[in-house]
C-alpha cells in the first residue's frame, strides 16, 4: 500500500486515468500537463515519488521517471508493473465510467 509521505503520480491519458487508478494518486498526463510547475505542485525535489501508468510495456511512466530525475529529484521510483500489477495484487483501485 501507499506510504503517507510518498506521492504517487499516474501519467495515463485522462480517459484511462478516469477509468482506473490507484486511490489518492495525482494525475499528470505526460502528454498534456506534465511539466516543472505541475510536478512541483505535487512533490518537492527531496520527497519520494512513485511514477506509474498501465504496466511493464508502457513507455509513459519510463519517460516521466526520466524527466523527474532530470529535474533533480533523487527519490524517484518507477512502478514498472503499474496499475495492472497493483490491481492483480489485490490492492484497491478507483474506477470510473468506461
Verbal overview:
The structure is a single chain. This protein is of the alpha/beta class and 98 residues long. The chain is built from four helices and six strands; from the N terminus they run E-H-E-E-H-E-H-E-H-E. The strands form two sheets. The chain has a four-stranded parallel sheet with strand order 3-1-4-5, covered by helices on one side. A two-stranded antiparallel ribbon has the order 2-6. The longest helix is centred in the middle third of the chain and has 11 residues, at 60-70.
Low-confidence stretches: none
- The best one-word shape is globular
Q: Rg from C-alpha positions?
A: 12 Å
Mean pLDDT: 89
Tell me what portion of residues adopts beta-strand conformation: 15-25%
Number of strands: 6
Strand order of the largest sheet: 3-1-4-5
If helices are DSSP runs of H or I spanning 4 or more residues, what is the number of helices?
Answer: 4
Q: Please trace the helix and strand order, writing H or E for each element.
A: EHEEHEHEHE
Q: Assign a percent range to the helix content.
A: 25-40%
Distance between the termini: 25 Å
Indicate the structural class. alpha/beta
Give the gist of this structure.
The protein is an alpha/beta fold. 32% of the residues lie in helices and 17% in strands. It has 4 helices and 6 strands, in the order E-H-E-E-H-E-H-E-H-E.
Amino acid at each position: 500500500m501507499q506510504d503517507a509521505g510518498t506521492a504517487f503520480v499516474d501519467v495515463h491519458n485522462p480517459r484511462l486515468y478516469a477509468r482506473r487508478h490507484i486511490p489518492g494518486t495525482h494525475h499528470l498526463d505526460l502528454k498534456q500537463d506534465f511539466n516543472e510547475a505541475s510536478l512541483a505542485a505535487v512533490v518537492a525535489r527531496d520527497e519520494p515519488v512513485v511514477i506509474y501508468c498501465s504496466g511493464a510495456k508502457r513507455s509513459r511512466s519510463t519517460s516521466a521517471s526520466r524527466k523527474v530525475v532530470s529535474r533533480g529529484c533523487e527519490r524517484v521510483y518507477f512502478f514498472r508493473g503499474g496499475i495492472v500489477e497493483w490491481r492483480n495484487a489485490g490492492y484497491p483501485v478507483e474506477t470510473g465510467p468506461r
